[in-house]
Design brief:
The protein is mostly beta strands. The protein is built from two helices and nine strands; from the N terminus they run αβαββββββββ. Helix content is 11%, strand content 59%. The radius of gyration is 20 Å and the shape is globular.
Length: 233
């Protein structure tokens, strides 16, 4: 049975996280972050789709995408923190055959919320995190098909209604924050695996077509409330 979450449930959890963190936090940072990565699909139905007659694609084509947006780090119990983010993402999938390239692009709002462990290593702070990521597609997506003999491919749009309007998955990764001025510069490597289908309905048996990504990001966070040990006495 597919995993389902309502938008009201997500909003409620977000409010609860922020309220608890603001009451008990011992440090607070907010900032901006952006990055590039590889986006793709996975699942048994997706592999079956690629293998159908006339669609002999292989999953070897790099599909670059990007994300950018806001983040907040709320320290709760040393060395743990809650980190919440809101990103605009442009991603999709890339498929390559002998003579054909096929790219899928979609506009997404990404909302990762995760638990983060932090350790002071060297001049900065090393972090490792795991949590949930919620995806809200919007606008139109595009499918671009080009051949080896043509640089200009055929582009077709697909409406928002053809995508699952609410998707959820697991995100995990590492980061490193280096003090710089009134805050820290962060370097972030993460992987995301969606648990819900990309399309709300499917003609392919189990509808097992899900999104995944690997992102390398850089950002800067302003320390609004510093940990007690960093506050001058």
């Amino acid at each position: 049975m597919p995993v389902r979450f309502s938008k009201k449930t997500v909003v409620l959890y977000c409010v609860m996280f922020f309220n608890c963190a603001l009451v008990f936090c011992f440090d607070l940072s907010i900032g901006l972050k952006a990055g590039l990565g590889h986006f793709s699909f996975y699942g048994e139905d997706y592999e079956r789709y690629k293998a159908r007659a006339g669609l002999q694609y292989v999953r070897s084509e790099l599909k670059a995408g990007f994300s950018s947006g806001l983040f907040a780090i709320l320290g709760i119990i040393d060395p743990l923190a809650i980190q919440a983010e809101v990103f605009y993402t442009r991603g999709g999938d890339g498929q390559k055959a002998k003579y054909v390239l096929r790219h899928i692009n979609a506009n997404l709002w990404d909302i990762p919320i995760f638990l983060k462990g932090r350790l002071a290593i060297g001049p900065g702070v090393f972090g490792f995190f795991v949590g949930a990521e919620f995806i809200l597609p919007f606008g139109e997506g595009y499918v671009n098909i080009s051949t080896a003999t043509s640089n200009n491919g055929d582009q077709n749009s697909f409406p928002f209604a053809s995508m699952n309007p609410f998707q959820v998955g697991v995100v995990f990764g590492l980061d490193y924050g280096i003090p710089l001025g009134p805050g820290k510069i962060y370097f972030d490597l993460r992987s995301f695996w969606c648990l819900t289908p990309f399309h709300p309905t499917s003609h392919i048996e189990k509808n097992d077509v899900k999104a995944s990504s690997i992102l390398l990001m850089i950002g800067y966070g302003l320390d609004l409330i510093k940990p007690q040990e960093e506050v001058p006495q």
